[in-house]
Amino acid sequence: GEGDYFSVTTDADKTTLYASSKGDAEKGWVVKAAINDGKLDALTPFIQTRTATEVATPCSVVVSPKKWLVVSQAGEIGDAADGLIAFYKPDDGEMALKLETGLRDAVAIAYSPAKEPGDSKLYALDFAWTTPAEGGLFRLEATSLEDRSAGCFANKLVSLDKPVAMAFAPDG
């Protein structure tokens, strides 16, 4: 792996570490490393997210409650709301789904703890480089489009000036 690491997470079993990296600006990367006996193996390139999504930088990486590797892609710096999230298979890195979010620069994503099975929600922080007043904390909600394809709606919960990271406490 190389350059500008943004986010790090592990799988549920704590056997693999994943990190998002700007790396080669033409590709963007999620890198991974095995965790053996509490020791981290070398980071190795895993997914070229920019190539897969055709959207700039992979900023945040999390593992969903259903064990998908979820990556937020910040769009090009500018006014376009071109950020998205993509879901990848953790075993081979194949992209299963990408969703436009309507956000400009989704720099952080996190799942809330589930109070009941299936109750976890996905949240995002939008840095909104060129229009910081439009940034903030959003809940990303799944939608179904008229053609029955998957969609995503970013529901703004609070305005924040240039947010960069977030995490949930176990109690939510």
Describe the structure.
The protein is mostly beta strands and 172 residues long. 3% of the residues lie in helices and 47% in strands. It is built from 1 helix and 13 strands. It has one helix spanning 49-53, and strands at 5-10, 16-21, 29-36, 39-40, 44-48, 57-63, 69-74, 84-88, 95-100, 106-111, 122-126, 136-144, 150-159. Strands 1, 2, 3, 4 and 5 form a 5-stranded antiparallel β-sheet that branches. Strand 2 and strand 3 form a beta hairpin. The radius of gyration is 15 Å and the shape is globular. The N and C termini lie far apart (33 Å). The mean pLDDT is 88.
Keywords:
four-stranded antiparallel beta sheet; 1 helix; 172 residues; five-stranded antiparallel beta sheet; globular; mainly beta; 13 strands
